[in-house]
Amino acid sequence: MYLGTRILSFTPTSDKSTLPDLTKLQISVITKTTCKIPGLPNDTYAIQNEAHAKLINMTIPPPSAGEEGPYSQCTIYKAENNTWSDFAEITNTTPQMACTSWVYDTTSFYPTAITEFEMVCGNEIMRSHSNMVGFGGALAGALVLGLLTDVIGRKKTLLISLVIQLGSGIGIAYSPNYISFVVFNFLCGIARMGEFMIAFVIGMELVGPTKRTYVGLVIEFFWCIGLIILAGVAYLIRDWRYLQLSLTLPVVFFFAYWWLLPESPRWLLSRGRLDEAEVIIKRIAKSNGVTMRKSIMRDITLHEGPHAKITAMFTSPVLLLRCVIIFFNWLAINIIYYGLGLNVSNLSGNVYLNFVISSLVELVAYIILIFIMDKTGRKKLYLVSMLLGGIACLATVFPVMYGTKAHTWVTVTLSMVGKFGASAAFGVIYVFSAELFPTVIRQSGIGACSIFEGIGGMVAPYIADLGILLGGHFASILPLIVFGGVTVVAGLTSLGLPETQNKKLPETIEDAIEFGRPGYDKKEESLLDPKSQSDGRSKLTYGVDDVRKTGWISHQDTSQF
Asked: Is the pTM for the entire model greater than 0.90?
């Protein structure tokens, strides 16, 4: 099936902005560290022998409050010349000083951006800044490339995104310092958001209304599968620079989509390029075993409907409150979704295994959504997902307060339950919010939501690193408590939104004001009305499924289309 192969072959290139994939975790993971023994060039984090252990005890004091490990991470004993031979007489009163070089645990990762750019001992927030800048690039990409794709087309914007991705990915791998690392991370965020956005848009525009929910969720399957593959690659390649290169260079193969991927027929029609659109639509029809009339293109129109400004939603108290709830929920769901992903490296246990489990949990959430979203309703499903994720995160306080190290698996399990709820809510909110905005501002409304999505992503790294920045006994669960609290509050505010399933969606601002009130027409919105056309034929309004519905294509069996 032409549509299926095109969509499925395209979506693996997608990447949700600069989401917390294992590449980011391995590049900027917080590894165990301690001060390097002055004057000992071959010093290591692991104790080599008894003589090495004696030197460590002579030069490095015990850990201070909030530090983990047997030795201090940031201070050494002060000696006259600061060489290991000067530390012969060490007592409890020996003064201490901040160290200027460190050794790192190389069990899981080495080297990383953290170790090379020394984001430790007072500089931990540099990691949060780096992740925030990446999400800032994603926000910029959504705004700039979102406009560009409507001007020059989906394929050209995709090519631009791939070029930026290739250049910035190589730039990250060869970054000589922190500043260049952050700059290339910003550019990479722009590119990756462009790739995912175009994958999602063109996938939705190549199918009709009845298939959009399905396609929107299937795209996420490939995102999850890609995460699992990343875990395997990252496990085999421990050097962050080589890992970055190994995941960047294959982008070259995706330039083949310039020839393999068709331009969106909808975009071509909106630009009046009917001949090009006809070639693509006929190719789709042929692959699905249906026949098109030769004169079909004379009857096709692209009806965009009336338009209004997003500010029209602020003219009524009902709509203003609805907008505030929607925007806050976009902010909250992105904070918990991205934050839980970034927090994987802060959980106990094997980071690779935790990451694979987290990806599988997300995949299961999307699979379940396909079967129940159209049966349970958007509002109820979204509320349950948010409360499940939030309460699970809040519950992590109990194993830390009342459990032992043997119960750390409980914290990991609750974090995964939180990821399940967040992933499910993430999948629902796209459909739910789009159905809540009236037709005249639906596109602008989703665009405004993407701004709050970007802000949520930019805030998430700081929350995920709260435990690292503040330290203490609750360091591992502090981010989860914040994520859980925000999620529960946001989920409860969604009670103020009307249900949209099996309802006639609002067309105008006036419809939006009445939507959800008793007496509002609850009939399912008619996507096409053949009787509305004087010649007895409907017009193409969106997607290829509509072509089959209008009767332009005649075939004994059109079930594949």
From this structure: no
